[in-house]
């Protein structure tokens, strides 16, 4: 087994570490899918009570694999996971962990939110079920649609049924894959509020995502997976400032520019690339078209990867 190399890329420690209870902790997790190379090569990750953590990484970095290892859907080749201070077992996961793949759990479309919750609550042996269901529906602002079949509800609303289920079973750890994907502004705000409230109640949330605005507003910190390890960790703002401080733009100009990198010339129009902050250097030249380059999040993930490769 390969020993973990320490990558000096940590931007900041969790504000919750030391003052808050560790709810789920992965230690030195290794996972391979032979014959391919190892996907995870010694991942450490602890989620503390009260925090929302973003799990980031380029496609194929191993985010889903890590979530599966945390929940026992997959077993690690080496390493361990503890849940509420004990070795994770099936019963502990069933009681304390809620998982929402592709933003929502498996729900019955022809049943209403209330019926779905009563069904699952019954399976989980929740006591005083009717009152519990009414309470959690109110908690995620679903009372109005509690008796409308899911079939007629938006994706955002269905995802909040998933959150209501996490509340109902008294889960301490919520793992979500892309909870904000495809949501409109109101649903995004409701989702954000619900996740923050869930964490503030002394629980922990781990989520994946690609939308910078959502991640920045909801995550207390993010961890970046690269090369099978946690290559960077900290607040998204701190990581962006460190790894991707500049937003680059491409502009088409009516005239030869004196600044930026000239990429193309066509019929008297010039395409140049330069940092957004240096747009002023183009002077009085008229801008025909302007395009923001690779989103900063993608730039951040690539740069973390480059730095990790250099120090490895
Ligand atoms: N059951 C499996 N069998 C073989 N290979 C697998 C299996 N599950 C995942 N992989 C491989 O492991 C790597 C990591 O996959 P994983 O889905 O964990 O990445 P990810 O970070 O979640 O990616 P994405 O952002 O695309 O969802 C990929 O190369 C994937 O093809």
UniProtKB/TrEMBL annotation:
Domain ABC transporter: 24-252
Residues in the signal sequence: none
InterPro entries (alphabetical): AAA+_ATPase, ABC_transporter-like_ATP-bd, ABC_transporter_ATP-binding, P-loop_NTPase
SUPFAM superfamilies with a match to the protein in the record: P-loop containing nucleoside triphosphate hydrolases
Keyword hit for Nucleotide-binding: yes
Molecular function in Gene Ontology: ATP binding; ATP hydrolysis activity
Keywords for the protein's UniProt record, in alphabetical order: ATP-binding, Nucleotide-binding, Transport
Taxonomy, superkingdom: Bacteria
Keyword flag Transport: yes
Gene3D superfamilies: P-loop containing nucleotide triphosphate hydrolases (3.40.50.300)
Pfam families: ABC_tran
Family, as annotated: Belongs to the ABC transporter superfamily.
Record protein name field: ABC transporter related protein
Organism of this sequence: Truepera radiovictrix (strain DSM 17093 / CIP 108686 / LMG 22925 / RQ-24)
């Amino acid at each position: 087994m390969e020993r973990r190399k320490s990558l000096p890329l940590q931007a900041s420690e969790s504000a919750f570490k030391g003052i808050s209870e560790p709810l789920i902790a992965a230690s030195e997790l290794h996972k391979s899918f032979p014959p391919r190379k190892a996907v995870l090569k010694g991942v450490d990750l602890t989620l503390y009570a009260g925090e929302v953590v973003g799990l980031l990484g380029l496609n194929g970095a191993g985010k889903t694999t890590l979530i599966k290892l945390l929940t026992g859907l997959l077993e690690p080749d080496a390493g361990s996971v503890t849940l509420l201070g004990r070795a994770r077992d099936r019963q502990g996961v069933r009681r304390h962990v809620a998982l929402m793949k592709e933003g929502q759990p498996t729900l019955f479309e022809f049943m209403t939110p209330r019926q779905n919750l009563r069904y699952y609550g019954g399976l989980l042996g929740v006591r005083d079920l009717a009152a519990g269901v009414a309470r959690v529906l109110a908690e995620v602002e679903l009372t109005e649609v509690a008796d409308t079949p899911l079939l007629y509800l938006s994706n955002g609303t269905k995802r909040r049924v998933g959150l209501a289920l996490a509340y109902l079973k008294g889960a301490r750890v919520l793992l979500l894959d892309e909870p904000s994907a495809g949501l409109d502004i109101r649903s995004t705000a409701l989702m954000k509020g619900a996740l923050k409230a869930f964490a503030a109640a002394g629980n922990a949330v781990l989520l994946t995502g690609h939308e910078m605005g959502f991640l920045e507003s909801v995550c207390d910190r993010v961890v970046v997976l690269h090369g099978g390890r946690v290559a960077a960790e900290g607040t998204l703002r701190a990581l962006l400032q460190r790894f991707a401080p500049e937003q680059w733009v491409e502009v088409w100009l009516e005239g030869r520019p004196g600044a930026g990198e000239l990429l193309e010339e066509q019929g008297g129009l010039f395409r140049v690339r330069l940092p957004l902050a240096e747009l002023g250097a183009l002077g009085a030249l008229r801008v025909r078209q302007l395009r923001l380059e690779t989103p900063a999040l993608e730039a951040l993930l690539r740069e973390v990867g480059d730095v990790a490769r250099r120090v490895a």
